[in-house]
Structure to design on (742 residues):
């Protein structure tokens, strides 16, 4: 053998671990407003750069620039801000409720609010969504009652899911929000299937699916992209790259050598890589994909480049694997603060108005909390009867489940 | 039987605009076993189409379509190929009604040819039915003749829960009784080969007593029904042969009534023995008929090995082994 150098395995390591200085020098940001906005009919092969660059609209000073500026009216912007702030206030309260022992588990989307909120606003309310566990902003933006969400988190007597699902695994057919699964990535190809069905029925509604950058490593991601491409399904495939899959940085999922948006290129799908903390950029990119899907031009893969500012879940402690002060060094800031700055720059917002809004949404959450708690929390109050455990396994209960229900004493 | 299955899908595609049929090679070509032949020509490529080779993708898109309101009928080319789809089947399709408290359902029928005897080796011969009966939320069906195949498939497609519909491929052309050295009688010469045109159903969860008898009960399904009948004829034992037809939900009453009468029970399946469906049947017979039993329950099954290509007839639980099982049950 001519070459006898010992082989070595490369195991990706993040730029900084606990105790080290946070390092985001690897994040390459193009100039705000510099990325072109292709026509929706553009051949994916002619928009290569969009898979590697980053669509950004909001400048540091709060002004909006470039071809992707969706030029939303102040009313819409204020609604977006309100929904993001409501989502954060809801998360804060629910996380506290978990610490108070009112539920077993919680997951916040802190820092990622623009994803659920701006995307819900760019979609039609009747478009079907197949979310992960971190898009509570979709439900909130669609006006789904906070009380109903809390009932689910508390598994109380009004929980429509009868206490069967872990907290935050909402389901709402009325809000076109698919039942959340704890098995990652499964919803991604399901979104494609729903979109295929809509096309088969010559409907006008489209579908959208979400997946974390970590779960793109699952086979279901590949199935979703393949089927979406083959059948030109009217679906938007969103990768929320929040840099972490629990403790594993995005390099473990394959983000070290290329972008997640670039995955689309092998399937012949158009890709948009977007500053996920830029409300306007998220809204604009989603609208582009919506228009493309609605006009029978097929699917778009969007990478929403964001940062999980909080823990993975209430069971996680990020200081064990990343620098404790890393969140404050994230170069793309906070989506809420950035939209507030934009409104202020437009003369449509002010610190005072935003403080008042923060109080308003807090009160809205507080009121919902009072009502939800009156229906019980995980440890207290009324709950669904154990007899209901045997319902809905099948449409009609077979004999063996009836016997087991009797065995339990019902 | 192939024509019967084809007719069931044809009937349902015509009756219900929400029925769609898809899978690998099922569209233009009509399936490697020809079960979907002509459906694309008749109903167009939006209702009967080919898919990429991705069983998980097939099941996942079916779940999404089910959530939309369609009634997908998907073909997994061989039951042996179903494993990549198990996450979508077990964690998604089977649990969707439960986890959403009935908001979303997965009215999917998964057709898959199963069983050996075609020199398919270990990857074209398996009988994985027990895996699916172990999953709460799935129904598991295995027909043994053309009349039942059509009626059960229509019931499965009309069912609002996901159904695993296993088709013993050795029965596609005739009632194969395990005598591989003899030619198979075609279905056209068998009474159960008579299949009415149009819509009819055979209900899920109902077994059929295919041969009444007094001495011993034989529980079988799929190909093993004919193997058992041959074994009964050759052994001269007056056995009652029950074709379970649906494994879940199981027709427990028919089983209990029969074993209570005969006091003996032989369970026959082609699948491997350990943790096979026979283990569940044995436990149920034990729990429900213990004081009527006059002999230990006997299982005649495939061996706990992969299905060997050139040795498949040594693996297959043929009439000779079933007859031995019957004698053991009579002596016990």
């Amino acid at each position: 053998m001519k070459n006898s150098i010992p082989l070595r395995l490369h195991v990706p390591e993040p730029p900084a671990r606990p105790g080290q200085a946070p390092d985001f020098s690897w994040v390459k940001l193009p100039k705000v407003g510099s990325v072109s906005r292709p026509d929706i009919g553009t051949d994916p092969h002619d928009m290569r750069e969009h898979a590697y660059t980053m669509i950004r609209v909001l400048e540091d000073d709060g002004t909006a620039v470039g071809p992707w500026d969706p030029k939303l009216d102040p009313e819409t912007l204020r609604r977006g801000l309100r929904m993001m702030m409501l989502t954060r206030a809801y998360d804060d309260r629910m996380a506290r409720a978990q610490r108070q022992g009112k539920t077993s588990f919680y997951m916040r989307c802190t820092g990622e609010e623009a994803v659920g909120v701006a995307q819900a606003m760019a979609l039609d309310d009747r478009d079907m969504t197949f979310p992960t566990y971190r898009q509570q902003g979709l439900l909130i933006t669609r006006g789904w009652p906070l009380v109903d969400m809390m009932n689910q988190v508390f598994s109380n007597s009004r929980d429509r899911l009868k206490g069967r699902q872990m907290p935050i695994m909402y389901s709402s057919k009325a809000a076109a929000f698919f039942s959340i699964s704890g098995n990652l990535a499964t919803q991604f190809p399901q979104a494609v299937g729903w979109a295929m069905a809509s096309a088969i029925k010559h409907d006008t509604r489209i579908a959208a699916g979400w997946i974390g950058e970590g779960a793109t490593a699952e086979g279901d991601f590949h199935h979703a992209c393949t089927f979406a491409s083959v059948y030109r399904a009217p679906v938007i495939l969103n990768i929320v790259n929040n840099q972490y899959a629990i403790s594993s940085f995005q390099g473990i999922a394959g983000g070290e050598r290329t972008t997640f948006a670039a995955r689309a290129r092998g399937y012949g799908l158009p890709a948009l890589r977007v500053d996920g903390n830029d409300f306007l950029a998220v809204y604009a990119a989603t609208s582009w994909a919506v228009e493309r899907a609605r006009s029978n031009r097929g699917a778009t893969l969007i990478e929403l480049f964001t940062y999980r500012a909080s823990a993975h879940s209430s069971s996680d402690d990020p200081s064990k694997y990343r620098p404790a002060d890393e969140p404050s060094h994230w170069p793309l800031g906070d989506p809420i603060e950035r939209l507030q700055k934009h409104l202020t720059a437009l003369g449509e917002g002010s610190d005072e108005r935003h403080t008042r809004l923060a109080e308003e949404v807090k009160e809205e959450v507080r009121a919902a909390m009072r009502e939800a708690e009156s229906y019980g929390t995980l440890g207290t109050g009324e709950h669904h009867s154990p007899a209901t455990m045997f319902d809905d396994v099948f449409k009609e209960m077979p004999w063996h489940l009836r016997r087991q229900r009797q065995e339990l004493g019902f | 039987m192939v024509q019967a299955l084809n007719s069931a899908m044809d009937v349902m595609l015509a009756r219900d605009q929400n029925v769609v049929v898809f899978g690998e090679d099922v569209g233009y070509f009509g399936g490697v076993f020809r079960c979907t032949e002509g459906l694309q020509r008749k109903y167009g490529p939006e209702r009967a189409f080919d898919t990429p080779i991705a069983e998980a993708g097939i099941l996942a898109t079916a779940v999404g379509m089910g959530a939309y309101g369609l009634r997908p009928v998907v073909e997994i080319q061989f039951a042996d190929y179903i494993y990549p789809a198990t996450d979508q089947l077990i964690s998604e399709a089977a649990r969707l009604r439960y986890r959403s408290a009935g908001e979303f359902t997965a009215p999917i029928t998964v057709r898959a040819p199963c069983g050996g005897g075609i020199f398919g080796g270990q990857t074209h011969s398996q009988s994985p039915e027990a895996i699916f009966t172990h999953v709460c939320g799935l129904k598991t069906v295995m027909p043994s003749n053309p009349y039942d195949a059509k009626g059960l498939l229509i019931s499965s497609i009309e069912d609002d829960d996901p159904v695993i519909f296993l088709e013993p491929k050795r029965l596609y052309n005739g009632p194969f009784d395990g005598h591989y050295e003899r030619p198979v009688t075609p279905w056209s010469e068998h009474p159960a080969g008579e299949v009415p045109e149009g819509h009819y159903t055979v209900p899920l969860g109902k077994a059929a007593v295919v041969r009444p008898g007094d001495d011993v009960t034989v529980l079988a399904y799929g190909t093993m029904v004919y193997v058992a009948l041959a074994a009964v004829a050759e052994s001269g034992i007056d056995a009652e042969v029950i074709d379970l037809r649906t494994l879940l939900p199981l027709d427990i009453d028919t089983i209990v009534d029969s074993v209570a009468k005969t006091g003996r029970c032989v369970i026959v399946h082609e699948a491997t023995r350990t943790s096979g469906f026979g283990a569940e049947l044995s436990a149920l017979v034990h729990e429900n008929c213990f004081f009527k039993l006059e002999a230990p329950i006997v299982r005649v099954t495939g061996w706990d090995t992969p299905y060997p290509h050139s040795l498949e007839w040594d693996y297959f639980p043929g009439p000779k082994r079933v007859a031995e099982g019957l004698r053991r049950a009579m002596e016990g």
In short: The two ends of chain A are 74 Å apart (CA to CA).
